[in-house]
Amino acid sequence: MLKRAAWRAAEVFTTPAPPQEFARLFNPLVSSRQLRGVVTAVRHETANSATIEFTPGGTWDAHKAGQYARIGVEIDGVRNWRSYSLVTAEGHDPAITVTAVGRVSSHLVHHTEPGDVLFLAPPQGDFLLPTGPRPLLMLTAGSGLTPVMSMLRTLLPQRRDADVVVIHSSRNSDETLFLDELTQMNDAHHSLTLVHRFTEHEGRLDLATTHDLDTLCPDWRSRKTYVCGPQEMLDDAERLWHSEDLPHELSVERFAPTLFADPDARGGVVTFEKSDKEANAEGNTTLLEVGEDAGVLLPSGCRMGICRTCLTPLVSGTVRNLSSGELCSDEGELIQTCISAAVGPVHLDA
Ligand code: FES
Questions:
Q1: Which intervals hold domain FAD-binding FR-type (predicted)?
Q2: Is residue 20 one of the residues assigned to a domain?
Q3: CA atoms within 13 A on the CB side of 243
């Protein structure tokens, strides 16, 4: 109410332009439509990863440990969105730790500077700490450590006796995120057990059977378990906990959809009619990626077939749903570009 009155008073001085337009000139976080954040620090973690701290604009909801946010960044005039876990403790300004894999993440790691503006969506996700004290097991690999870092940074200062086992896999110590901080945490908290698995020498943690878990964490069945890492690891964990009749004890964080590549898939030329652009698409590349690479501004959200933000009308041609394998050639049908690929020439109303 007070805020609205203040804007009305400001109109006296800024007419004919609304006061928001003047504010936007000086404060990049003021936007009537799009949540934004300004980068306050960039810290390199390993040779190809960096932590980017940012201060979000006013309507950002404080994140809970383990949540993620979609971050938008403009590259060559096209706004690209990706989901990243928020790595700071609850109650702190957010930060993301990004590994330079793929175009958007590489851009963030190598070209972000303090003062840059990021486009933001509110924190979300239910990969959250239990509400009461529980013995915990964290199984992470590579950048899958990031949501768990937020949990550890939140939990350990509050409960020095929190019983947590972290088994983290990375290729070697040079590629391990937060290595020094984890070591310090381990020294400071006797009830924290940290197991580094360097896959270069020890091979991957095998979750296809109970053998590795029985060896590294014999009471794993009695722990609330969180797993975040490559898809194969997540799939194995889900199968194992199901086979032990413990699916309710497992929380899985997935950032990528389960897509099925068809080795015989043929792509085709995709025409984005409204944008007047054309691109050659491979048979297993999503139409969203094809469009973005061609400089077409397509709507997107989760990029994993959940939110349906990317729905785009099919004008003609056939597309394959990479998740279900189903084909669709119905004119006017709304298709999810983030999980659909071209089968021959395709025209989209985009
Ligand atoms: S972007 Fe969410 S369903 Fe396609």
A1: 32-130
A2: no
A3: 10
Residue 295 shares a structural domain with residue 339: yes
- Å from CA of 57 to ligand 1 middle: 25
- Give the range of the structural domain holding residue 279, as residue numbers without chain letter: 268-348
From 297, 324, 338, mutation site for ligand 1 pocket: most ligand atoms within 8 A of C-beta: 338
| Contact yes or no for 141/149 (Cβ under 8 A) | no
Q: 241 or 106: which carries more pLDDT confidence? A: 241
Q: How many CB atoms lie within 10 A of CB 105?
A: 22
For residue 151, tell me if it sits in a domain. yes
So what's the ipTM on this one? Answer: 0.99
In degrees and rounded to multiples of 5, residue 258 shows phi and psi of -85, 105
What per-residue string of b and e applies to 28-53 under the rule 16 or more CB within 10 Å gives b? Answer: ebbbeeebbbbbeebeebbeebbbbb
32-89 residue pLDDT tens: 468 999 999 999 999 889 999 999 987 899 999 999 998 988 887 777 778 899 999 9
Residues 168 and 232 in one domain: yes
Is the beta carbon of 257 within 6 A of some atom in ligand 1? no
Structural domains in the chain (count):
3
